[in-house]
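hey so i finally got around to running the thing on that chain from the lab meeting. sorry it took forever, my laptop kept dying and i had to restart like 3 times. anyway pasting the input first so we r on the same page abt which one it is
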Amino acid sequence: MPGTHLTALPITPKDLDRYEVENVFHSWSFQPTVSPKRVVSAHGCRFTDETGRDYLDFSSCFVNVNIGHQHPRVVDGICKQARKLCSFAPTFSTEPRAVLAAMLANITPGDLSRTFFSLGGTEANEAAVKICHQYTGRHKIIGRYRSYHGGTAAAMSLSAGDPRPWSQPTAAVRTLAVPPPYCYRCMHGQTYPDCNLRCLKFVDEIIELEGGGDQVAGIIVEPIIGANGIIVPPPEYFPEMRRMCDKWGILLLADEVMTGFGRTGKWFALDHWDVVPDILSLSKGLTAGYVPLGATVVRTDIGNYFRDHFFGHGATYMGHALACAAAIEVLNLYEEENLIDNSATLGKYLLERSRELQDRHPCIGDVRGLGLFVGLELVRNRRTREPLVPVAGRVCKEGNPKTEVGAELVNLGMIAMAANPSNVIAMAPPLCATKSDIDEGIAIMDRALRKADACVEA
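ok and heres what got predicted. didnt touch it at all, straight out
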C-alpha cells in the first residue's frame, strides 16, 4: 500500500489475513484465497492459534522441531548470543561456529570431521553435490526415485519421482535415477527377502553401464525416504551399498536432513546399519527449527583434499553465529534429556499403535517406520494396492482424499504430514513426546481416517 508509513501498517486479524493472501508466496501450492490459521505461540508438543485453540503437533512441524517448541534453554542461548554477536563475516572465526563443528565431528559416524555450514537442508545438499563433483572430478550423480532433496536447481534435479519439480526445468546436475528399496511396491516385481536385493543389483549394473568410477561421482540417498513415503530399507541394503560404492570408487552421499538427530531412535539413521557415508547432509533437527541452519559434513580425506585444491563454494551466512549457538544448545539437550532414547522407545509404541489403526481402517495398506518416524500408506484397495491418490494428485488444484484427512486432523485439533507428495501420512511427533501424547494422536488419527475409508473400494 504505497504512501503508508511502515510503523503505521495496520495489523488487525483481517489485515494480516489480507497480507497473507495478497503478499506472501506459499510453498509448493496453488496460492490460497483464504489465509491459513495463524499460530501465536507453542510449547513442547503443542501450539496455539490466534483464537486460543490448542493443537497437538504430531509432525514436529516439518519434521524439524525435534526437541519440542520454545525450549527455554535454546531461547536463552539465542538471546545470550544475540546480545554478544549476532553474525559476522564468515572469513573470520566465531566461538559458536568452531564449537559446533567440533561437536558434529564428535557425534557423526566414522571419520566425518569437516563441516560446511549453510542455511538449510536444500543448501546442505547443494554443497554436498559440489563437494562430490570437485573432489572426484566427475559429474554424474545417481539419485533414487521417490526422493526429495530440496527446492533449488541441483537439489530438484536429484529429486526423482517427486512431482513438485515438474513445473521447473532442471538441468543443474547430470542425474541418473534408480528404484529405491520400496518393498511394498517393488518396481522389479520382487518380494523381499527372496528378491536378493534386486534393486541394489540394478544400481550396480547402472553404474557399470554409465562408466563406473571413471564417470560416476556418487550416489545420493535418504537412508529412510521421508516426504515421499517413510520407506525403510531392508537391513542389509546400506551395508551392501557401502561395499558397492567402495568397489566402484564412488562417493556415498547421505541426505539425513529429515532423519538426523534422533528422529529414528539413533543419532543418525545410517547408525542403525553401522554405515559411514562419505558426505552427510544435515539440517532440521540440527537446530530443531529455532534458527535456520544446514550442515554438510565430509570424511577426513575429503576435507584434507581441499587444503591443496580450491574449494569452489561459499555463502554470506556460512556458520551464522546465532544459528550455531542455537544448535549447540539443541545438541546438548538431545543428550541431557535422553531424547534419542525416548525416540527409540516411543517409536516402537507408535508403530504398535499404528498397526492397530491398520486393523480398523481398510484404507491403510501398509504401516512402516523407525523411531518417531512412522507412516500410514493409504490405498483404495488392499488387495490390488491401488494408491488412494495418483502421483499427480499432489500438484492438482482439486482436493483429494488424503488432503481431506489432513484437513480433518486440523479440525480435530492436530497436525500430521498429510500434504506430502506420496500416499503416506507421516507421524513424527517431537522427541520429547510422552506415551499419552502418542495415545492422543492415534485417537485423533483414528477419527480422521474415516475420510479415507469412505473412498475404499468395496
